[in-house]
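re: that complex we talked abt at group meeting.

here r the seqs, copy pasted straight from the sheet so there may be weird spacing, ignore it
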Amino acid sequence: MVQIATRQAYGETLAKLGEANKDIVVLDADLSKSTMTTHFAKKFPERFFNMGIAEQNLYGAAAGLSTTGKTVFASTFAIFAAGRAFEIIRNAICYSRLNVKICATHSGVTVGEDGGSHQAIEDIAAMRALPNMTVLCPSDAVSTEAAIKKAAEMDGPVYVRLGRLAVDVLYNQEDFHYEIGKAITLRPGKDMTIIATGFMVHEALKAVDLLAQKGIEARLIDMHTIKPLDKDIIIQAAKETGAIVTAEEHNIIGGLGSAVAEVLAENYPVKMKRVGLKDHFGESGKPLELIKKFNLTAEDIVEAALQLK
Amino acid sequence: MSMDYNHLKETAAEIRKSIIESVYSAASGHPGGSLSAVEILTALYFEKMDVDIHNPKKKDRDRFVLSKGHATPVLYSTLAEKGFFDKGLLTTFRKTGSILQGHPDMKKVPGVDMSTGSLGQGFSAAVGMALGLKLDKSNKRVYALLGDGEQQEGLVWEAAMSASHYKLDNLTLFIDFNGLQIDGKNEEVLNINPLPEKWKAFGWHVLEIDGHSFEEIFRAIEIAENTKMIPTVIIARTIKGKGVSFMEGDAGWHGKAPNDEEYKIAMQELGGE
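got the structure back, here u go
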């Protein structure tokens, strides 16, 4: 199966979009070869600005550029975007609802060898707490392309959480329908529901098969939009399947699991389990070894699911 | 323009009265660093900048960013004096429901080009604006006003480095160098000197002027306009609280409103009723 990192799909999509949309301007902070904005930079050097290793100015300048009518994509690693530049994103971008797309790569522990200092595990929590912010977390290349196109079309700030690791392509370009805020049911199922986002959608797919072998029909939802969250699909899943497991490559505090729990608690409480990092930092290692070490595999999702039965 | 600048001096006097009026009615706000920047904003809005009060967001315009965002009284008073909104609104400053937020909000106030308040961010945004205007091959200019205490923010130097790297000669900064910040003198809180050498080292064209002299302000702006390939910073020596005797040179008036008696004295000194 073809494997493509979501960051790769992001870079290629930007380069495509730049042709028709002359208002797109791209900024990076000395990581263009890793965030893949280099694809755009090579094609449209006059509309690409390397801001150097200065993430606060990356987002401050992006805010100012957007006020001149540009659609600004500004990229760095998730830890430096949502972390280091948090308050710039809040006050310079979100406060005035400016048209800046914060496309942050290298999220989660699948960053791998760089270790815990470089693995953003709290960015979803930080970004979804910001008024005016839209938060997207695509799982594969096809949905990343769709997410970037929609982000470019809409006016206002968007945070797009992207990964380093090459992952399977889950969707068919030809019949793929994507709407911000509308989750995708990847597998039907009546016994319980797994709601996953980003990289963990891949593990969740395997978990659905493992559960099927045990006679459990699990529904799988790809929650590609963290905010605005698709409340209807969550409530419907709670009503129809009675149990929910969330799966994310993020701290279990404040991320997808928390967001789903908020919806359930206020609308239709059912038993749930959150698969994610149990409030600790990541570390160096091979990505697939790390997800085992931190209990982020299909088997871990299955175990959580079985605890709910 | 007559060389004695009498008309602008009258405008500046009106703006100073509005500053005291708005801070007094809000019973909070930042008079000191507003009064120090009156001549700079008056020169920009009443002489230099191409802005349209009937179409404040027109694409092709000069832009001003109040990077020292707490000096809203001077920005709002100047915009009101210019006619962007009714002067009567100034007494709603900082009150619940008012468009005149404590710090500038570009979505609420006609004529405000950037929301600011968190120091360093306005300057960074001004760099982005200047890049955008260059991309559009516009001949319009971007002005930003920074505080002296603001020089302590790391973001200022990130932005400074990027502006010279991208040769943003359409960007002109003013530094309101009154020497005082909330906790006292700059050199006692955290020394920012020597400023001209720092800015030169970051690749900027540096000018030093008396920030209360219209003649020097205009001369500096003209030099900036004619300086190509590098951005210009105008270090303006000013007096915090300028125009109100008991506020002048006193860091205590950074963020404090006058009481009834102080208000009366201030307005008398400024030639108000």
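couple things i noticed - Chain A has two domains: 3-168, 184-308. Chain A touches chain B at residues 25, 46-47, 49, 51-52, 54, 56-57, 59-70, 72, 87-88, 91-92, 95-97 (CB under 8 Å).
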